[in-house]
Amino acid sequence: MRTAIVYYSLNGNTSYAAERIAKKLGAELIPIVPEKAYPAKGFKKFIHGGKSAMKNETPKLKPYSFNADGFERVILGTPVWASNIAPPLRSFIEENRATLSEKRIAAFVCLSGSGAGKAMEKLKACLGTDSLEAELALIDPKDKPREANDKRIADFCDALIGC
Predict the structure, then answer these.
(1) pLDDT tens digits for range 116-126
(2) Three-class SS of 62-94
(3) CB neighbours of 144 closer than 8 A, spacing ≥ 6?
(4) 117-151 pLDDT, tens per residue?
(5) What is the pTM of this model?
(6) Most buried one in 11, 32, 113, 129, CB count within 10 A?
(7) What total number of domains does the chain contain?
(8) Both ends of the chain: CA-CA distance in Å?
(9) Phi, psi dihedrals of residue 64, rounded to the nearest 5°
(10) Range of the domain at 153
(11) What is the CATH number of the domain that holds 147?
(12) 163 vs 2: CA distance, rounded Å
């Protein structure tokens, strides 16, 4: 099944996970980037990113290449900010709502603390669905590599292969 992984990554954890999932599934990676970058460290990172996520903002994205007709499945990846999805992913969903509704959708989130469940529920609400083909939450997969994260990635991919 032709699969695209559309993701936003600020500090590299989400891109790290996306690359591993893509390798296992033979999926195409489609990174999305906001025109105006979010602060990547320090206090401003949490204030600006968290506020933007809580307000459900949809920042303008840099051009990306995504033709939904070429994929049966789309996997969405995002860091968790204030128990929510990162605003650039929300922008992508808004820009592609009609075509995403016709695809099989799975998702993964990366985080350092808590809020994965709430973020996944907000992602489903943004998509207008009650369920996803598969869900995955990873704690700092790049910054703190763990065998448990590798197993979760493998299980996520196996679940998708079995669908």
Answers:
(1) 999 999 999 99
(2) CCCCCCHHHCCEEEEEEEEECCEECHHHHHHHH
(3) none
(4) 999 999 999 999 999 999 999 999 999 989 999 99
(5) 0.94
(6) 32
(7) 1
(8) 10
(9) -135, 160
(10) 3-161
(11) 3.40.50.360
(12) 13
